[in-house]
Task: structure prediction
Amino acid sequence: MSAARNGYRDSTNRPVVAVTGMGIVTSLGQGRADNWSALTSGRSGIHAIERFPTEGLRTTIGGTVDFVTAEPLCAPVLSERLADLAIGEAVEQSQAGRVGDFPGPLFLAVPPVEMEWPQRQTLARAVNGDGPPDYSTLVEAARGGGYESLYRLFAFAGVADILADRYGTKGAPVSLSTACASGATAIQLGVEAIRRGECDAALCAASDGSVHAEALIRFSLLSALSTRNDPPEKAAKPFSKDRDGFVMAEGAAALVLESLDHAMARGATILGVIEGCGEKADSFHRTRSSPDGHAIYGAMQAAIDDAGVSADEVDYVNAHGTGTPENDKMEHLGMETVFGERHAQVPISSNKSMIGHTLTAAGAIEAVFSLMTMAEGRLPPTINYDTPDPAIPLDVVPNTARDAAVRRTLSNSFGFGGQNVCLVLAAEPA
Result:
């Protein structure tokens, strides 16, 4: 690797974007070491939900992070707590600044901040009047009824502000939601900011702590969730013929991105490189992707093109791999279109078979796992792959981890409503 006169640049003369810190929390554990050990051993973090009553529900399992607590226990507060743990680990590893003084902006993917039923019931008791109060009335009741923390949370959706203050990031934080592609979008925004020269470093994080009764029921009404409740660890079956839906889960991940110039100048350890980002939306349906798969294929190809490489130079794919009948079929179509005859030989595995679908956080969590895959030379398995689907002839690294040298990874994130973002990550700069 050699530096051009104007610094480390890619083939289109953009700054090379390096990763210098990573943090992660999932149902498998807290931190990189515990998660990687569990993931590569094929251990599942999916279990029976104990956080709220599930009697009468079709789905009673999830990948909840029960070892992290929050008060009040609601999605935004838990998401903030999970993000804090992941960001703290990433900043500590990177040594780019410190807590309270990070040298760049925050891009945070977080689930939509919505008042959940326990908070609605608490605040409804503080409201005088006839009939059930509407949402805005509840928020106003929080402001004057001694519930200031709830008011700040639900009126201003301040998760990103809280974390930006805690870590001392620069400029206004960006809080975003692009459905299940959100985590990858946060990384994409950080990459683009560094490429444009707006900053030398960026903190990109994604978090989701939204396994609560209302969210579970909503996804269940869409027939999106697996109903294979017993045993829970066998429920998530990406790419299998008998797959029946995804499993809701929680978690967070954070990456410290820097221009390679900035990282090398301070002697940072380079954990990998974000070579390319591709984004395509199809606007076909509120939840479904277009049947022709053009946006899924388009996002994959756009990421590869943005990286300035060919599909033949991709060694491994970290799948979106939710385990829903339609998503897995569409991802196979994308693989077949992008990789051609080689698609059945490219190893592709789904972390969701073990951790469930972490929704807003998925793209960032899977980016961390992709970087660890390249660093460790070990492919995580797709567990529960007992009944192959003959219509999806892929090498899914079935059931057992596999040692392999991986130079470059494509990480896929496909969201409801056709919001698709893919990332190309490399083990080291070209």
